[in-house]
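For consistency, the fold was encoded as tokens, which produced the following:
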Amino acid sequence: MSPQHDDLARRAFQQIRQSMTSMPSFLELAVFVILALVSVGLGLLLGIYVGIAGVVLSALAAASIKVANQWERGIVLRLGEFQAIRGPGLFFILPIVDRVRLVDTRVQAMDIPRQEVITRDNVPVSINGALFFRVSNVEDAVMKIQDYVYAISLLAQTALRDVVGGMSLDELLSERDRIGKLVEDTVEKDSRQWGLEVTGIRLQDIDMPEDLKKIMSRQASAEREKRATITKAEGDKLAADNLADAAARMAASPGAMQLRTLQTIDGLGPTASNTVVLAVPIEILELVTKLGKGL
């Protein structure tokens, strides 16, 4: 479905939801039924005209009763002019001359449609997000803008494109929280005059062309291989330094080589299959070494 169709469907849903707020509540229907039954009874006793008048008055009395839920506020318009904000709970209006529109003041979640954006370094990306907002000023939300839900949706899309278009690809991938905060500040600044409060904007998905994904994958693989090679080289250097230090200590300590040789022989195990042959005793090697130093 195209973005234009999504917008039309969203606006149609909002109109249906707004029209449902003007439908009679259960309390209105109950009051009307009770008063109408009483009027019919009086009509049977006093005449049909009394019954008809009673039914009409019952309808007017029921229409004057309105109920707003805890999270709703009612805008009362009297002959098209703003009169008051009522609710939550039970309140009364003047039938025929008053009209009520209920506004939901809870936090609403809205999807920011996927946007095709070119970053500052000319990389095409596709990005979408989620918008969370609430109505903080009921009068402004109804009086100053025709459809605040549709308006803030368009505002969030535009702000997302503007902010992402000023970022490089590396910034976009590594600073999602900062980008969401920048978009939130932009939307909050423009929507505050409509009586709306933005509670948060989050980026959901960032999609890039397949060839760019492959290039980034190869780059990440090469970076990991480089780190592994450097780590191995540092390990080899550390092992060589330790071996050189151990050789120097053994050369400076008399008998250290004999103890090392005996330790190596002991490490071979006591099994009969291991046979150790020392072609030249250690003492003779040390004597030759001393003679070499004396010469």
Observations:
- Residues 68-105 form one domain.
- The longest strand covers residues 124-135.
